[in-house]
Amino acid sequence: MEKHSDVLIIGGGVIGLACAYYLAKAGQKVRLLEQDTIGAGASYGNCGLIVTSHLVPLCAPGAIGQETKRWLQGSSPLYIKLSPDMKRFRWLLNFARKCNPTHLTHAIKAREQILTHSRTLYAKLFKEEPLECDWEEKGVLMIFNSRSAMQKYDKTNTLLKPYGQNAISLLGDELIRLEPALRRGLYGGWLHKTDGHLRPDKLMPAWQRVLQAQGVALEENCRLEALVAGDRQIRNAQTARDSYTADAYVLATGAWTPQLTRQLQLDLPVQPGKGYSLTMPRPAACPQIPCYFYEKSVVATPWKSGFRLGGTMEFSGFNSNILARRIQNLTSAAAEYLKEPLGEQVMEEWVGMRPMVYDDLPIIDRAPNHSNLVVATGHGMSGISMATSTGKLVAEIITGRKPHIDATAYGIRRFGT
Ligand SMILES: Cc1cc2nc3c(=O)[nH]c(=O)nc-3n(C[C@H](O)[C@H](O)[C@H](O)COP(=O)(O)OP(=O)(O)OC[C@H]3O[C@@H](n4cnc5c(N)ncnc54)[C@H](O)[C@@H]3O)c2cc1C
C-alpha cells in the first residue's frame, strides 16, 4: 500500500474531517488516521448547535464570581477534580487572568470571524454535498428561570449587537406561545435567530462518505504513536503497524493533542473538558427550537430523528466514567424548564472530551519548530460551529493560498512558545 500522501491528517473528529474536505477540494491527496472510529471523540454525542451568536468567551469578566456563586448554590455545571496536576493548575490560573475587558473585546472579534464564516461555509456545504444530518435553521432559545439572570443577559446581548448577533427578548406567555414544550412560570427567553442545529452523529458518517467519494484515504483503528522529526520538519508518522510519510501533517487530535506535541517539545495549553449527553426518542411534548437552560447550562436539542440533553464541564483529566449523579443533574435541570424532559427511553448515555484552551480561542497554526506541521485544535464548546472555517483555513495554510480570515488570534505564539 502507498504510504505517502500530500497531507496526512491525524484525528477523525469534525475538525479532521473538515480539514480533509477542504484539502481534497484544493486538489491535495489526503490520508487521515483515526485511533478509534471516525467521530468517536467529542464530535459524536455533542449537542449539535451551530452557535454563530456564541461570541463571548467563557473567560469573560465576572465569570469566576458567577461560577463560584453557582457552585455555592449547588447549581454549577463545573466540576474541577482536585489533584496535584500543575498543568491544570496553570491552565486555571491563565483562565482567571483572561477574564478581563481587553481579552473580551479581542476574543469576541476573533470568535466572530470564524463562527460567521463557518456558518456561511456550512450553508454551501449542505447545498453541494449529500450530508443528511437533520440540519435546521430555527435559532437557539436561551431560557431563564429568574428575572435577574434574564436581565443580566441583556449586557451580553449589547455586546453582540454590533455583529448582528443580538437576540430577541420574549417574556412569560410570549415565550410559551413560541415554544409550548416549556413549563409555564419561566421568566423569559432570548431567541438567537441566526443559530442553527444539526445531528452530529449523523453528520460524521455522512461526511465520511463524502470524503471517501472525494478519494480521501481514511484509516480507522490506526493510532499515531509518534511524529518523527528531523531538520525542523516532520519526517514520518509512526503507528503500531506502519510508518507514513507526507509533504504536510495536520494534528486534529482534539483534547489529545498535547500528548502528541509534547514529543516535539511543543507545550500546548489544551485540557480535556468532559461533557455528558443523553440521547432518546422525542418526548411527546418536544421543543421545536433548541433550548439552552441558562441557570443550569444544560442544552436540549430536538431533531426530526430524536432528542438530546447535554451539558456539564468536568476538569478531571482523561476518563470515560459515566457518573450517575451528573446524568441525574442533566435530567433534573431539564425538568425545571420542560414539561417533558425525557423521551420514552434513554438510548445512549455518553461522555466526550472538549479540547479546552484557557483563552477560549482555537489553535490553528503551523508548529513553530516544524514547518510542515499544522495544528488545529482547542475549539472548546464550539468545535462543530467552527469546523468548516477551520478546515478551509488549514487548507489555505498548507497550499499557500490567501487565508479567508485573519488567523493571528489563533496562533501558537500567543502562548509564548
Ligand atoms: C456535551 C458536549 C456538548 C457539546 N455541544 C456542542 C455544540 O452544541 N456545538 C458545538 O459547536 N460544539 C459542541 N461541543 C464541542 C464539540 O463537540 C468539540 O469542540 C468538537 O467535537 C471538537 O472536535 P475535534 O475534532 O477537535 O475533537 P474530537 O472530536 O475529539 O476528535 C479528535 C479525534 O482524534 C483522535 N485521536 C486522538 N489521538 C489520536 C492518535 N494518537 N492517533 C489517531 N487518532 C487520534 C480521537 O480518537 C478523536 O476521534 C460539545 C461538546 C460536548 C462534550
Descriptive report:
With 417 residues, the protein is of the alpha/beta class. It is 32% helix and 27% strand. The chain has helices at residues 14-25, 63-73, 86-98, 101-128, 147-160, 173-178, 200-214, 257-261, 324-337, 383-399; strands at residues 4-10, 30-33, 49-50, 78-80, 140-144, 168-171, 188-192, 196-197, 217-219, 224-230, 233-239, 243-251, 270-280, 291-293, 298-303, 306-315, 348-357, 363-367, 370-377. The strands form 3 sheets. Strands 4, 5, 6, 7, 13, 14, 15, 16 and 17 form a 9-stranded mixed β-sheet that branches. Strands 1, 2, 9, 10, 11, 12, 18 and 19 form an 8-stranded mixed β-sheet that branches. β10 (224-230) and β11 form a beta hairpin. The chain is globular and about 65 Å long. The protein starts with a strand and ends in an 18-residue tail after the last helix. Bound molecules: flavin-adenine dinucleotide. Flavin-adenine dinucleotide binds next to α1, β13, β17 and α10.
